């Protein structure tokens, strides 16, 4: 096949894939199971804080290391800030104990949307709650890109989390290629519309969104305050279209991607940046504490 033909074929495939995505947005929600779509509980998680700082530990930390970390952050004054740590799930009960009285809360890094079943190695919303987690990260770029999670899978999880009284942090973000092709806004809008498909404004009072440009995660390359501001305000606008103005205004929008104590101040000043989802730097109690202090 000559190069021209190949290029045309790829372009057609990309167009088709996008058409499927757009079609999904318009379609009524597809029920994964009866449990996922059952009526909403009378639930409103108390996230009235002005700023939120979340630590995504990923596949790091053992019991001993986590205990040392907890001892170092426990006495912090976190005041008007929501601080949530997302350890590997098996450490959650120990962390809750170790942080008792500190106001710091614990979340899960992922979950399955079903409540139980033959899904080897997965963890259900019931288990997430049973472990004491109040939040769950969904649609993280590592889940999307390494584990091939699609917007539809993420949407089922978002609905399931809300229905079980767990606050989802829905992660969205473009790859470097997508940014260079000026596709950032389209990608973010699709991820939001598909990920939040079928949710109501009332449900969204228990929702957090994280903008994590894929090219900034774990690379040491942070979005500039201006780049982050533009996307955050676009996210706010899109949430206004999905829900309404007052609902969108109350949803916390976090920035994630190589956040460090050095770039915290310049980013947190921006209007629509309500906090951070911190990976690498959250493994150091000193750096994490400093980021919290600067917010
Ligand atoms: P990073 O990770 O801070 O190490 O870039 C952020 C994240 O993946 O949530």
CATH homolog superfamily = Aldolase class I
Number of helices: 12
Biggest β-sheet: strands ordered side by side in the sheet? 1-2-3-4-5-6-7-8
What would CATH call the architecture? Alpha-Beta Barrel
CATH fold-level assignment? TIM Barrel
Count of structural domains: 1
Unreliable parts: 13-44
pLDDT averaged over residues: 87
Strand content: 5-15%
Assign an overall shape. Answer: globular
Query: Helix and strand string, N-terminal first?
Result: HEHEHEHEHHEHHEHHEHEH
Sheet/helix structural class? alpha/beta
Assembly annotation: single chain
Which percent range fits the helix content?
40-55%
What does this structure look like?
- This protein has one domain: Aldolase class I (TIM Barrel, Alpha-Beta Barrel).
- 42% of the residues lie in helices and 13% in strands.
- 40% of the residues are buried.
- By secondary structure, it is an alpha/beta fold.
- It has twelve helices and eight strands.
- The longest helix has 24 residues, at 3-26.
């Amino acid at each position: 096949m000559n190069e021209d033909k190949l290029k045309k074929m790829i372009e057609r495939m990309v167009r088709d894939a996008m058409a499927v995505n757009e079609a999904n947005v318009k379609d009524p929600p597809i029920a994964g199971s009866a449990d996922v779509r059952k009526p909403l509980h009378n639930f409103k998680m108390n996230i009235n804080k002005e700023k939120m700082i979340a630590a995504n530990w990923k596949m790091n930390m053992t019991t001993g290391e986590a205990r040392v970390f907890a001892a170092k952050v426990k006495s912090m004054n976190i005041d008007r800030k929501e601080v949530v740590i997302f350890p590997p799930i098996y450490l959650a009960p120990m962390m809750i104990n170790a942080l008792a009285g500190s106001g710091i809360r614990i979340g899960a890094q992922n979950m399955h949307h079903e409540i139980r079943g033959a899904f080897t190695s997965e963890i259900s919303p019931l288990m997430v709650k049973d472990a004491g987690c109040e939040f769950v990260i969904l649609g993280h770029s590592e889940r999307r890109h390494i584990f091939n999670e699609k917007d539809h899978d993420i949407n089922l999880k978002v609905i399931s989390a809300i229905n079980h009284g767990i606050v989802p942090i829905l992660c969205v973000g473009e790859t470097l290629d997508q940014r260079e092709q000026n596709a950032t806004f389209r990608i973010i809008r699709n991820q939001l519309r598909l990920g939040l498909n079928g949710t109501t404004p009332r449900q969204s009072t228990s929702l957090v969104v994280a903008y994590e440009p894929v090219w900034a995660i774990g690379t040491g390359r942070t979005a500039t305050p201006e780049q982050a501001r533009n996307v955050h305000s676009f996210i706010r606008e899109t949430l206004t279209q999905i829900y309404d103005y007052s609902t969108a205004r109350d949803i916390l929008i976090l920035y994630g991607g190589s956040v460090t104590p050095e770039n915290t101040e310049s980013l947190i000043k921006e209007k629509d940046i309500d906090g951070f989802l911190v990976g690498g730097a959250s493994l150091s109690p000193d750096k994490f504490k400093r980021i919290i202090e600067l917010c």
